[in-house]
Here is the input.
Amino acid sequence: MVLLMMLMLVPLTPVSTAVDTNPDNLQAQHIAAVFDPVSETTTVSWQNIDTYNGNVPYYHSAMYNVHRHTEPITPSNIGATQLVESITACEANVYIQYAWCLSSTGGNGGQHPGHSVSYLVDAGTNSTFYYAVTIEWDSDGDIVGSTDWTPDVPHQELDPDVSSITIGVEEVTSPVETPLVFRASYSLADSETTLTWINYHSPNLPNTNSALPNTTILIWRSTAEISRSNGGLVYDGLTVATLIANISSELESYVYSVPSDTNEEAYYAITYFIPNKTGDGQDFVDLRFLSGNTLTEPVLEDNRPPSHVSVFSVSTSSENDGTGETQLTWFSVPGEQDERYDLYVSGAPFGSIYNTGVTLLASVYDDQELEDSNSPYTYTRELPIGTLGWAHYCVVTVDAIGLFDENTSSSSCDSVEEDAFSNWQKEPTNVYAEFIGDRTVRVTWIDQLGIEGERYHIYSSNGVPTNPQQFATQTTYHGFVNDNTQVFDISIGPEIISETGAVLNWYIYVTSEAQYIHANGSYEYLGLDQNSYGPVEIDITPPTRPQIITAESRGDLGFVAMEWSNLQEPNEIYQIWRHNGDPFDDSSLSSSDAEGWELVLDDVNVGLQNSATIIRNIPIENGTERDAFYGITVCDQFMNCNSELIDGMTSNTRLIREDTRAPSVEMRLIDDDGVPYTSPSLVPGLYTVKIEASEDLKTTPSIEVFSLAGYNETAGGALMTQTADNTLNPDKGPEYSFDFRISASETASDLLIRMTLLDLADNVGVITNTSFKIDAKTPTITAYAPSPSSEGSKYLYGEKINLLFAAEDDVQIAELQYRFTFNYGGLSGVTSTSPWANAEGITDVNNDGTSLVSDMEFSSGTFEYGQHAITVRALDTAGNQKTTQVVFVVDFCRNNLEGETECEFEEALKPDPEPEIVNPSMSEPPYVLVWIAVVVNVVIFIVALMIVQVSLSGPKKKKRGGDEDEDDDWMSEFIGTTQDLDMDSITGTGSAAEEKKEDEPKNESPESGEEEDDPFAVNLVQRKTRRKKKVEVEEEDDDDDDDDDLSWAGLDDDDDDDDDDDDDDDDDDDEGEEEKPRKRPVRKRPARKAAPSRKRPVRRKKSDD
Here is the structure.
């Protein structure tokens, strides 16, 4: 943007006021050329001369030519240059006086501002180019642009940097990367413009790479041409161009739906939108349109139909011989040229020429003479023979390219009644009608002659015939049929009745409606010449209803028997109906047509039978037990049916109980306490069988109670006792009971309770109950796991405890249960017992509940170590139970340091061991250590005595010479004292105490010198001064040996009971290192041999014990 703004500051024409160079032949002056990389345009500018000479008058007839070349342009290569553009040197209509053609910068009265030419550099250019300007004119002085202008005086002065640049312009443009072979075609039929192209990145093209990601195609539409000159304006939306699509770069076609009512020439252009082509966020759109990706010729998009004619009329005439004609008249549509007029006809009004039955009659083309004379167009149609009825005509205008409006208008359509059928019969013949019963009148005829595809309509009038004038008001329309049918049945609806019961007299009419010539829009003739018949006698009065005499259900035989009275009409037919609900819930009157009634027996035709009653049996399905209404209706020989059904004992309906289902019972077993017995096993005692029957019974039911093992309470059968009839409760049936006893001596077996019932419809029901068993034995139970502790087994932490036990019973096991007793026996804690729990993992061995096995697992980690017990039990269906118990041990074991296995519970049960008396010998390890310690102490004691003896020996004469004194001081330093005892120093009294006070402040300030290392220095802080002499305290040894206790010899004691003092001594060591102690001289004594070096024994501190 900054570069573009800077380029805008560059003047298009030079402003130099330098003197002209070689101006005699009007050579261009002050040439300059600048390349703009944004618009990829090189602008060449120059000026006219600014001084007058004899050729200035030729400016009006002169033409400047701008040349471009890859080398500096000279007269020798001017013929090889590219002619960029030719422009008028001075416009005569602007600069009327040729003197005004001089440059406005010269001050000589010239007004011409200069020239500039912009050259769009080709895409993909990357080179340096040179520009030059030459001039030529017409020697006759004809003005440029006039018909006689011919340039015949060329001048090619090319002075450097005057009319030819010597420093080339570097022109670098982007290569073309846009779609190729762009085409557009418009389809009038579809109102669509199809655009096609070849993608620049198409794999079918050589030397092409794939498009960058997210590349899309932009398509513009404009009413003006889109080119390099306005591409930027198009992209910025500053022109009339519209972006109509942004699609995938993989597509090579696009269909543009042209909006309706469009009539214009359109230009299209296409290019790529390439995101991030030259960098992140730097999108690229080539708007130069140099690859043929824009239309140079527009495509005409016209879907706007022409207007309808505003004046249109038709008229017709006919002859007695069956001929006729119709004339159509209209005026042209203003503003249309080369149009045509299509004429359409139909037998019915139409709003579109595409409606069914619309026929193109003719096309009339543009007649310019008629339009110029303002005369109407006319068209005469000769009517085809047989034409009859209304005809509807419309005219449609079609423009020069074939556009038209398919919809018609009121101004372009007109109608007329046409007749070219005068000598033909327009009605059917031999019309006949008769009443055939079932409220039906059958009508027959012979079809009309002379036409095809006609339709016949059937009408009737009651009592008297009608005429064409009153036909519409006195007839009833019944329907129509197509040709070649020639028969029609009139169904008389229930709304038509005979109020007196007498027959009706009808007249029947059949009219013809035909499509005479027209494909639609038929014509019905109502002349009533020979198309009627009558009267027809019609009997529509139904017979009276029958009466039921008896009706009963026979369940044992499987049918309902009905008997009713015979009406004794000729050829009547009876029907039997059934309703499973209550048809008389709201009213005592119903009809066989009402919902719910079903026909169970039809066509009971007694013919001419004159018996008083009629009997019929209606089958009923097995297993049926319901209440149903039965009714009887009747129809006479004309199928006039009386469908009324009336409730009542003397009517034609009856409520019947359909019953083919044997009675059933709901049985309960009650024990001697009056409580319902739910267990399937019966123990000894008194029981009562109580039943409720599903329906009323004809007799008291019988019962048998016995077993296959010999038990028989009823000995062949016994009658039960009725306890309630429940007649007032419709939801309950009668109730009965029977008592029986089971003794303790009965053998286990299935108990059979068999009851026999007879209902009111003679259906026998035998009900046998086998759900009970006689059971007097307890079950057996065996535990297989866990392993009992009595066998020496135990369960360690982390192991699984398997519980496996089985139970058997002669009847059925009802439940298997288990419970735990924790710390069984109280050996390792307080005893507790869990509640009974139902066993899991049960397997039914015999699939009848007589033998069950339970297999379960528990983690030993849920038990504390110790002795536990698990109890299992089995309960049979009679309540008998059996239990068993297993005691097991859970222990926690681990290996000790000796590699032996120790178990917590096992060790806790062992008794305390007896104390063992040991009499060690004097040579065993403990005594050896004692002996060694005694010997060491004796040696230490002897050494101590020797040291004391040496220290107590009398003072000797001091030797002269400092060297000898130093030789004698080593022993004193070794033992930490002098040979002379200073009692004041030992007791801390006298002058020694004062000296000590004086030494304390001095000790606080360490001296600068460092003490030399003394291999015989001891770490004990000792007072090493004589009376009235100052001495430095040496560092005290940190050893805690017992042999250092020499306080009785005037030395400090390093007692191992005072560890803190040792620490303090260590601190004193640090201070003592800073000040070198002064050695006091000792008395000279005879020299001794050097003592051997040895280490002092060190005792372990108490803190280490």
